Fold each of these.
Amino acid sequence: TKTLTILGLESSCDDTAAAIVRQASGAPAQILSSVVLGQTALHSPFGGVVPEIAARAHAEKLDICVRQALTEAQMTLSDIDAIAVTAGPGLIGGVLSGVMCAKGIAAGTGKPLIGVNHLAGHALTPRLTDQTAYPYLMLLVSGGHCQFLIVRGPEDFTRLGGTIDDAPGEAFDKTARLLGLPQPGGPAVQAEALNGNPKRFAFPRPLLDRPGCDMSFSGLKTALLRTRDQVIAEKGGLTPQDRADMCAGFQAAVADVLAEKTRRALALYLFEHPATPTIAVAGGVAANTAIRAMLESVCAENSVTFTAPPLALCTDNAAMIAYAGLERFRAGGQDDMTLAARPRWPL
Ligand code: KG4
Ligand code: ZN
């Protein structure tokens, strides 16, 4: 029943984050603080995340984040049991900044260092927020990732399938760019889609004709580009209604693909784990209300429990890293100063 207090660091993409999570074994975890400093403004002139700029900003902001997380939790480093850090996968400059910062703190305090897989952080979030019991099926949908995982333990995952090209968030972002909408594209496209007719333009449902849980989203943005250029060629420009209809059609296509592939992943999962019919979702795209509603109805039609963490914990944050580190540490896992930053690190 040892209570553990873990400092977590996250810097694998364009959010610099630090958080402190505490848990007595068997009890719900508590987020004592969770600080996220986004970099959207730094990258927006370039229309996408610039790795070099991201790395520099992480290096400049990580210590500020850590200090703020400690202050908000009314703690000092001496109150921390271990330091967890995202060691990959992600943009290597950012991951390196985080790992070096964590090693510095570990060296200075003599506390244990725990490398965490960013995807494991997302995948364990339902345990942080809802104490979801193992095993469960996870749909991870973000700007960089899209996969179905059976989550059996803090380091025990089975991948059932995933995207073979773009992640859905990336497709939302590219769609927004093609239609002149602001970044990040997901919320902008969702807002436009509210006023649109999803049936006006026919968008493909890639890979539904093939068995299995793999998905593809890059063809959707090509279809959108073609549709956009066709409308512009016919009418000389896009009206707000054209834009809304394209967003609605695109979003419906993504939701349909995710729904059908979720049905298939669920069938595979339930075959092995009929006693724990639970599906959880995480990642930035889980914020999409149409996609959430679709997942809820797939779960309802199969009598499966649906769990979605609150929005702030669906997108990148350090509380999920602290929590995944906490579970790993409780199970006896830790690293030493040879911990490497990994650009690729499949679960
Ligand atoms: O998990 P996340 O913060 O970062 C990683 O990719 O790891 O996810 C960010 C992605 C972006 O691509 C963003 O456009 C997308 O999530 N997103 C959304 C929505 N809100 C954020 N996509 C669709 N609908 C939304 N409401
Ligand atoms: Zn992420």
Amino acid sequence: KIPCLIDCDTGMDDAIALICALLSQDRLDLKAITTVAGCVEVDKTSRNTLNIVDSLGSQIPVIRGAEAPLQRELYVAISHGTSGLGDVVVPEAKRALQEMDAVDMIYRCAVECEGKLQLLVTGPLTNVAKALTRYPAITSLIEKITIMGGALRGGNMTQASEFNIWVDPEAADIVFRSGISLTMVGLDVTLKTELPQYVYEQVRAMDNPFASLAADVFSYMMRRNSLTGVSLYGSVELDPAHMHDVLAMAVVVRPDLIKTEPHYIEVELAGSCTRGMTVADFNDVMNKQPNVDAAVDVDLDAFWAWMLELLEHGPKR
Ligand code: BDR
Ligand code: CA
């Protein structure tokens, strides 16, 4: 099993990623879940995360992490509604968040796993950057970080940048320079994962609590396509039902679902209209070793089949 810590900003697609992670425990040894501000404020991402895992019967510790980016003011997304889960109602957890510093938890898990820990990060990279800064030795204790974030080309927050990296570019910069093996599951592939109607219908017809919650989340994501909200640049349509974070989660247990290319990538910090851009040195003009395996293609049929099988039958026995 892969020892894994999830760092997330739950969030609609984070919620589906969590459900799929809980159902993947034949392949994943989930050590803890830390939360971060991003889709919504950290109190809400923490509550959403705890309520989801608790309502699905899991005792995995959930720890509240950073409430703001390292240097920038927090900017929350509009596509997840004010609660972070749209109009989806999850029962209040019967337990509390684990009282501990999230950064210490990341370090403790890394030490306990003796170099084998993998991180799955589906929000801004604030907690991970703090862990790297407070505990520099952690770089040799983490086997791999799989990130939903960035893009080789394009953006969704701005023309140049993806939301998670844009929110806390200084944190992303620390992580991208860390030397830890990184898989970037960015918009180049995640924008291909808009939920097909047939997948929604099959999940809706399933009869188990994991699939029922997933169907409720999908339903809001599909309906929000026609809603508008006020973003950085004024009124816009909300995101379609892209499974950004779910694909990143899938890749941890099923790396064969994507094709990657090694690239040297830096995060733009200073640009006035390129803040948070993940700039890939395509033509090797900087003469640097690649620091990121960037996803460039996804086997969508296999991805939807993976998700449907998991939601219907759970972990393979
Ligand atoms: C990312 O931003 C968030 O809104 C989603 O949960 C995902 O992690 C996509 O850019
Ligand atoms: Ca997210």
